[in-house]
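Final report, section 2: Outcomes. Of the targets proposed, Glycosyl transferase is the one most frequently requested by collaborating groups, and we therefore present its record in full.
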Amino acid sequence: MKISLCMIVKNEEDTLERCLSSVSDIMDEIIIVDTGSTDKTKEIAAKLTEHVLDFTWIDDFAAARNFAFSHASMGYIMWLDADDLLLPEDRQKMLQLKQSLDPSVDAVSMEYHCDFDEHDNTTLNVRRIRIVKRVKNAKWHGAVHEDLSVDGKIFDSEIAVTHKQNHKNTDRNLKIYENRLLQGKEFTVQDIFHYASELHHHKKYKKAIEFYLKFLEDENNTEENKIFVCIRLADCYCQLNDKEKELALTFKTFQYDIPRPESCCRLGYYFLQKNELNKAVYWYKQAIEVPMPENSWAIVSGVSRTWLPHMQLGLCYYQLGRYDLSYQHNKIALSYRPKDKGILNNINLLEELLKQGQD
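The predicted structure is given below as tokens.
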């Protein structure tokens, strides 16, 4: 299995070498397409590959990626961003994949650990196509949050790509979408979803709701997409203090699959705010106990099935006077967030209360 790594970059001097160092000895060809760097990005790239190309930026990520793919010469093409990398255990899995991939496979998906908290816990995990067979001529679509169209036999690997973003959040993507709207460009279903997500991220909740609802109108939506967008809609309504619609969208996720931890935590918080503590406890416990989705393409929130429900159970049990249970759940929350001052303070307080109870 011979692989061309194709990347598009711009002003990535802080991350590019880290990315390439994690994969350069695994790849059989590396193609770097620069879209207008003004720093040392191209110099860094040139140390590891002779294939450093220029592409005039036209506010279209898919166009740049398709240009990069067009220069690949190996049997398979892999893509990464400059702030991605393979951790050591995933490097080993990648090496094994090169030796063992069934030649009939047309594309390989990998997990994408794309968001982390300050304690390095994965807070968002999605699955994306990472490798495609070159003769399939797969194309990218979408000016901003681009998607790779593939068909044929797909292998869902256990390899994870880790995203370590160094850049500050900007409104670049939002402006590109808004300019395209002004130009009368037609939005695909995926454009609508990604534009809604950008609006949501920039706290433009009312307009985000409008486009999330447009996305849900598409008859070809998967169950996973419906669940994810309903959760996003519930959050928008929460931010707008519309509790009735927040609750309705949270329960709507139950139509598509067993309750997801995000929905359970939202219901737990709803009842906690109403001081209905036993109901809050029930839903937070559900968030912990609900199994992982059977669908490997499900979007998984690490927060809602790890430290958050345990921390909230600690609060509920404290208010119920069950200091022993509160202590247990705070200790579990601490295992995920060992430097969290709030949790550490909770544990110190509870240790004093438990000690007093024994005296």
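The chain has a mean pLDDT of 94.
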